[in-house]
Specification:
By secondary structure, the chain is of the alpha/beta class. It has helices at 44-52, 73-78, 95-105, 110-123, 139-153, 169-184, 196-202, 220-227, 236-244; strands at 5-12, 21-28, 33-38, 59-64, 80-83, 157-161, 188-192, 205-210, 213-218. The protein folds into two domains: 1-79 and 155-249, Rossmann fold; 87-154, no CATH class. It is built from nine helices and nine strands. Helix 3 (95-105) runs parallel beside helix 5 and helix 8 (220-227) packs across helix 9 (236-244). It binds adenosine-5'-triphosphate. Residues 14, 20, 38, 40-46 line the site of adenosine-5'-triphosphate.
Length: 249
Amino acid sequence: MQMMLEVKQLTGGYNPRRPVLHEVDFHVKPGEMVGLIGLNGAGKSTTIKHILGLMEPQQGNIKIADVMLKENSEKYRSAFAYVPETPILFDELTVEEHLRLTGMAYGVEDKRYEQSIVQLLEQFQMTNKRQSFASHLSKGMKQKVMIMNALLASPELFIIDEPFLGLDPIGIRSLLEQLVQLKNDGAAILMSSHILSTVETYCDRLIILHQGKVVAQGTMEMIRHKAGAPFATANLEELFYHFTKEGAN
Ligand SMILES: Nc1ncnc2c1ncn2[C@@H]1O[C@H](COP(=O)(O)OP(=O)(O)OP(=O)(O)O)[C@@H](O)[C@H]1O
């Protein structure tokens, strides 16, 4: 099966003499939700910045939809939508204007646009905020606008950074339902989160980053196997602790 996202032997960071990431290697296929987890400072956001093309790999390469950014930036960029941890909106635009902009940027047809935004606004309990300016929204509502924009764009790959923090329980459930639907329809999803129970329940595979290295990856079964016999029935939190405790690797 074609890889939607391929990160190959990625070494990178903010200073060429002191890389933050060391030969990070993983992929996400269509129809898969993959969780990227690690302690504070493990390198999750740095990995995501490289994938977004905001940072240049020092070694290795990244492909989205089979192309590197430098080979075909339009194909690379239009294949994914990114939901950042901290919402980034235009204060002077309304919720609907944000959605309209996304619809235009991703070429969403008028008919699908109308149907989608009515559904999204309802699912995320934002119908009565349709005409509100972004500056008048709460933090969680801003996060919902970012998520609705990504869902409206409906790309082949979603990159979602710590999506649950600002959301209320209904928002979390709506997001998870939508992600499962998208995945079942063939989308690839890379999600970074500290909420391990949710990651364990929803992700098909996991990548555990520790001090800029992948210390374990695969299905829960594969990660349990790697941890050894005492972890045969361990949950993700126990496995996470095992692989990220001081000096684990
Ligand atoms: N702008 C920056 N300049 C220099 N170093 C940075 C910068 N941003 C992050 N770092 C360093 O890179 C390392 C990885 O940080 P990163 O933000 O990728 O971690 P993270 O896994 O996303 O953590 P968290 O769970 O806290 O969000 C840390 O040592 C951090 O200090």
